């Protein structure tokens, strides 16, 4: 996680002259952060595939140092349901529900239309609903 933070700050410093002020500084930094997280996720996926090919068994996911301890069964179930979403759907869920970003800002961050964000949110909620039904409450629209 610290590597990603360092990469974000390094990228921001290297690209500081490219900031034109068309969006807020926070939005600009969030876009850099999203891109760095996507790159990190791709690298982890590649390393995981390599490990599986070489050893024939997947690595022990419980041993990950980046994994925070689950506070309770409900939070573990929610984390698992969100983690199981396709990356594009997971991004909008995290930005909207965890970062409390409005649809308009998410559309700027992801460089897609507000309608596309609405569609992704709808699709992600629909995918989360069965997984979270056991908890008694799905995501609110």
Structure class = mainly alpha
Sequence of secondary-structure elements: HHHHHH
Q: Please give the largest β-sheet.
A: none
Total strand count, please? 0
Number of domains: 2
Protein model, in words:
α1 crosses α2, α2 packs across α5 and α4 crosses α6. About 7% of the residues have low confidence. 67% of the residues lie in helices and 0% in strands. It is built from six helices and no strands. It has 141 residues and is mainly α. The protein has two domains: 67 residues, no CATH class; 63 residues, Winged helix-like DNA-binding domain superfamily/Winged helix DNA-binding domain (Arc Repressor Mutant, subunit A), CATH 1.10.10.10.
Summarize the structure.
The chain is mainly alpha-helical.
What is the topological layout?
Blueprint (H helix, E strand, L loop, with lengths): L1 H13 L10 H31 L17 H11 L3 H12 L4 H8 L3 H20 L8
Helix pairs in contact: 1-2, 2-5, 4-6, 5-6
Features:
mainly alpha, single chain, 0% strand, 6 helices, globular, 2 domains, 141 residues, Arc Repressor Mutant, subunit A
């Amino acid at each position: 996680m610290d590597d990603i933070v360092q990469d974000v700050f390094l990228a921001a410093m290297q690209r500081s002259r490219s900031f034109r002020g068309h969006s807020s500084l926070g939005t600009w930094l969030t876009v850099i952060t999203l891109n760095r997280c996507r790159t990190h996720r791709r690298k982890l996926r590649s390393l995981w595939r390599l490990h599986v090919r070489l050893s024939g068994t997947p690595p022990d996911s419980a041993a990950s140092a980046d994994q925070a301890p689950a506070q309770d069964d409900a939070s573990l179930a929610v984390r698992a349901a969100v983690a199981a979403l396709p990356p594009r759907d997971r991004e909008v869920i995290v930005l909207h529900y965890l970062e409390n970003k409005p649809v308009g800002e998410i559309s700027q961050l992801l460089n897609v239309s507000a309608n596309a964000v609405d569609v992704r949110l709808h699709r992600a909620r629909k995918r989360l609903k069965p997984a979270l039904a056991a908890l008694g409450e799905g995501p609110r629209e």
